[in-house]
Amino acid sequence: MSWQAIGIFDSGVGGLTVLREIFRALPQEDTIYFGDTARVPYGTKSPETVARYAHEITSFLVRRDIKLLVVACNTASAVALNGLKRQFPIPVVGVIEPGARRAVEVSRSGRIGVIGTAATIKSSAYTRAIKRLNPGAEVLTRSCPLFVPLAEEGWTDNEVARLTARNYLLELKEAGVDTLVLGCTHYPLLKPVIAETMGSDVTLVDSAEETARTVAAILAKKDLLRPAAEKGNHHYFVSDIPAGFIRVGNRFLGGRLGDVYQVNLDNDGEEC
Ligand code: DGL
Prior knowledge:
By secondary structure, this protein is of the alpha/beta class.
C-alpha cells in the first residue's frame, strides 16, 4: 500500500477529463494535477518542445513524491512518453496505449479512425500502437484542431460545432471506419456532436476511461492502492494565473475544482 498521490499533467484544462475518470475509478486516491496553462496549446508545437515541457512538469511532480504519473495529454503522450519512462523511476501511464487497446477490442472490421491534434496525428503514435496490437488493422487519421477551442468555449452543441464536425469527419465516415478514437483530451466534450456526425454504427473510444482502468490495474498489481474506504484529496497547479483554468475547468471536470495554485517552473517549481 502507498499513501503517495497520483500525479497527472496536461497542457491545460483538457486532462481534467482524464482526472474525472480517475476520480470515478479510484475515489480513495490523492491526486496532484498540473495544467501548463502558460504554454498551451501543445498540439501545434514541435515534438522537441513538448518533450522539454513534459520533462520539466514531471520533475516538478516527482519532487512532490508521486507514486505514478499519468500523462493525460495525448500530444505529450505521443511525443514524450518513452523519454519520461526512461528518465523517471516511477510508473508512467500515457493515454495512447489504453485508447488503442480499447479500439482494437471494440472494432469488428479492423477499420479504425483516429482524430487528434496536428502533433498527435503527425507522430503516428496511435497508428503504431493499434498496429502493434492488430497488425492487420487499417488506421485512418485526421487532425481536428478546431475542436480544442470549441470545447474550451463551450460551443459543443451548436451549428458551428456541427459544421466543423461534418467538415473534419465525413471523410472518415465515408471511408467506413467502425470505430473512432477520440485522441485528444478535449474531444470527449464534443462526443454528442461527433456521435451524431459519425452515426450509430460507429463506436467512439474515449481514451480517458480506459486510461483510468489502466492506472487502477497498475496500482493494484504493484500493491500501491490506498484502502478503498479512504477519500482522496486533490491539488491543482497551473503555470499561468488560475482564473481561466478554474472557469473552464469546472466544466471539463464535471464538478468543482479545489484550490488552484500558480507555479513558476523556471524557478524550480516555486509557488507564486
Ligand atoms: N491536451 C492536448 C491533447 O490532448 C490538446 C490541447 C493542446 O493542443 O494542448 O492533445
